[in-house]
Amino acid sequence: MPLHIETPLVESRPLGLITGKRIWLKMEALQVPGSFKIRGVGEACVHYANAGAERFISSSGGNAGLAVAYAGRRLRLPVTVVVPETTTELAKRLLRAEGADVIVYGASWQEANEKATSLVGKTEAFIHPFDDPLLWRGHATMIDEVAGQGIQPDAVVVAVGGGGLLCGVAEGMERNGWHDRSIIAVETVGAASLRRAMEAGEPVALERIATVATSLGAKQVCRRAFEWTNTRKVTSAIVTDEQALRACRSFLSDHRILVEPACGAALALAYGGNDALKPYKDIVFIVCGGATTDMEQIDRWLAACGSSD
Ligand SMILES: *Cc1c(COP(=O)(O)O)cnc(C)c1O
User: Fold this and answer.
1) How many domains does the chain fold into?
2) Nearest CA to 245 among 221, 271, 219?
3) Do 289 and 166 share a structural domain?
4) Final residue before a domain boundary, out of 67, 97, 131
5) Of the residues 154, 281, 285, 291, which has the maximum number of CB atoms within 10 A of its CB?
6) Nearest-5° Cα angle at 98, 96 to 104
7) Which domain holds residue 89?
C-alpha cells in the first residue's frame, strides 16, 4: 500500500474561461500531508524501511519534512527533523503533530542540514527533499493516474524548486509514452535556479534566494532536472511573487482550496495570461499544494508587495 492517495483530476471551468483552453487540475494539494511530496517521500521511506532503516532524518521545515514525518508515523518508525531558527511556529507545530522529533538548530538551512546529516549513522536514512531517483519514481505516479483516466494533455505545468517534481513528472510522461508532450517549468523571479541552469548549460548556484515562495527556494537544481531540459521539451516560465500570491487568492475563491505561493506560481500562468501557454490547447496543472502558509500570511505578503512598488 503506497502512503499517498490517488488525487482527483478535475477540469477547471474558471481557468478554462480565462485562458480559452482546456485546463485540468491534478489536485496534489489534497494529499494528506498537504503536498505531492508524499508520493516520492513515501516511495523512498518504504524502500529504506525495507532495507533496515530504523529512523528517518530530514532537514526540511517545509512540505518535504512534513511528508517524512507523516511517512514515519504510518510506517511506525521515528523521525527527526532538524530545522533552522527561522522556521515558523506553524511548521514546527505541524511536524510535532505528526510525532516527529523537531530539533531547532542554526541560523540557516545550511547549518540545520549539516546537523541533520551528522545524525545519520548505519540505522538512519536521510530523506533528501528533491535529489533522489526513488523520489522521482514516486512522484511519477501522479502522471500514471492522469494517463489512467485517459487524458493526454499537450503540456504539463509544474513549479520548480530543486527540480524533484520536474524529474518525477518527466519520468511519468516518459513511461506513459508521452514523448512529444511539453513541460512548462515555473519559477518565481527570486528563485529561478532552473532558468539559470538552462542559460548556463549546467546547474549553477544562485547567489541568493529572494521569494515568498519558500518551497521553490533551492539555490541550485539537481543535475537530473537540468538533463531533462536537454532531452525533452521543457519551457521555462518566470512569474513575480505578486502574481503567485494573487493566484493563491484567486484559486481559493475559484476552487475553495488554499495553496502556497510555490503552487500559486504555477497557477499564475493561467491567471496571468502567460505566453508560455500559447502553443497548447489541453493543459494539466500540477496543483502541488503546500501546508505551511495561511491566508493571513498571503495577505500580509501581498500588502508588502503593494508597498514596495
Ligand atoms: C517541494 C515543493 C515544490 C518544488 O518541488 P521541487 O521538487 O523542489 O522542485 C513546489 N511546490 C510545493 C508546494 C512543494 O512542496
Assistant:
1) 2
2) 271
3) yes
4) 131
5) 285
6) 30
7) 37-131
Extract the C-alpha cell encoding 127.
530523506
Ligand 1 atom with least separation from CA of 221: 9
| 130 touches ligand 1 (CB under 6 Å) | yes
For residue 164, which atom of ligand 1 is closest to its CA? 7
Q: How far apart are CA 223 and CA 138, in angstroms?
A: 18
Domain C-terminal end among 101, 131, 161: 131
Starting at the edge strand found earlier in the chain, the sheet holding 101-104 runs: 101-104, 79-83, 55-58, 124-126
Do 74 and 191 belong together in one domain? no
Statement to judge: residues 79 and 169 lie in one domain: no
Instruction: Report residue 309's pLDDT band, with 50, 70 and 90 as the boundaries.
Output: very low
Measured from the CB, is residue 163 less than 6 Å from ligand 1?
yes
Confidence of residue 110 (pLDDT cuts 50, 70, 90): confident
Residue 43, classed as helix, strand or coil, is helix
- Condensed to tens digits (0 to 9), the pLDDT of residues 153-200 reads 999 999 999 999 999 999 999 999 999 999 999 999 999 999 999 999
Give yes or no for residue 269 having a pLDDT over 60: yes
Residue nearest to atom 2 of ligand 1 (CA): 215
Query: What is the CA angle 275-19-23, rounded to 5?
Result: 105
Closest CA to 49 of 124, 132, 129, 138: 124
What percentage of the chain reaches a pLDDT higher than 90?
92
The three cell numbers locating residue 110: 545550511
Same domain? For 239 and 144 the reply is yes
Q: Residue 122 sits in a domain of what CATH number? A: 3.40.50.1100
Residue with cell 532558468: 195
Do 166 and 300 have their domain in common? yes
Please check whether residues 97 and 181 belong to one and the same domain.
no
